[in-house]
Structure prediction request, 444 residues.
Amino acid sequence: MAEEDRMVKMEVDYSETVATVVPECETLAANGKLNEALEKLFLLEKQTRMAGDAISNSNVLVCVVGCCYKADDWPLLKENLTTLSKKRGHFKLAVTKMVQRACEMVPEVTDKTKKLELIEILRTVTEGKIYVENERARITKTLAEIYEKDDELEKAAKILQELQVETFGSMEKKEKVEFILEQMRLCYETKDYIRTSIISKKISTKYFDSKDTDELKMRYYRQMIDLNLHHKDYLAVSKNYHEIYTTPAVKENDEQWKEALQRVVIFLILSEYDNEQSDMLARVKADSNLSKIPYYQNVLTCFDTAELLNWSILKEVYSTHLKSKVGQATTPLDTEDNWEVLRKRVVEHNIRVIAKYYTRISLSHFASLLHLELKEAEDMLCKQVVKGTVTAKIDRLDGIVNFSKTRDTEEILNSWSGNLNSVMTLIGNCNHLITKERMVHQVN
Prediction:
């Protein structure tokens, strides 16, 4: 066990002595007699440390760094911070109080060079000490902010990533989330998207179910929206906006919840079809607030109905509303790339509808229903088959698309066996009824 972890029984109470000596030393330091004041304080520091008086020792250490700071003697301040934190048998409480006092000085320092020197010495003093991990985290965050102001984003991101705040037991949950959100923001701005995604998983979204977390929840999901948009994961973006939409603070503001719900719908129809997307589409469609934004309700209904959509008509009818501004922000469909994605989703929807109503269809008729050239229609169908959305085979010689599912040998045998069992059951029933009729006839 380390010396600093041992339990020490207080032998002498120096509180009265400290209460007398500390003001005297502060007066001496203020009058330019810093060395004389420090000599008295160092002697008292040793006495309180050896006597096991942790509280008095803390007050002495705080006074030492305070006198050096007020005297503007930076070399002595740095030297004493380092020396006092390494004293034999020092108290955790005393070192913590000293570090906390030094951390309070950082915002007060106006000279940038001196501020950086103080931060670095504090980071050195607190390195590897669990009992001052919170102070180290906060001072590191201050250093990252300074680097960011100097346009050194990569340096700021790197230094902030050193903090594994999710493992800090003494730090409040709210402060942890704020630190992680700051780490995410810096990583995203330095285009380190993989690390941003990894860091985002350190935040449990269950935390946002607590009270007074609306602001942090909004920050988190807006950062996740930026990240998912970079990866073009539209379904995840839609879910992120849905979380914002369900936030109590947003629900209270008509403009905000309408904006969030509209973006939920837009990104939902931009996302690729699968079971998850289909389930979310059904849940959003069941939301009563959707009726208050009818155009978005109608476009969502179009994708939930097993009917063919005409891309030209759809774009003409809904483009004005889908492109319009929502509050101060423009909609995602302002970009031509997203309009192209939406066109593909319309074609994919039409392919699923055709597969539902047809078992066999000519390739030319198939392309005409999709309003596409023959080659593009074939390419789109192939992509859907590869993704497993539909089952189809193309007979190029006859120009026929077959949507019937090919059954394997085991499935055919199981079906034959099931049918045979049904036939034998019916024969048994018939035999029983015939026997029953014969017996009734013989009695009569």
Q: What stands out?
A: The longest helix spans residues 409-443. The chain has a mean pLDDT of 86.
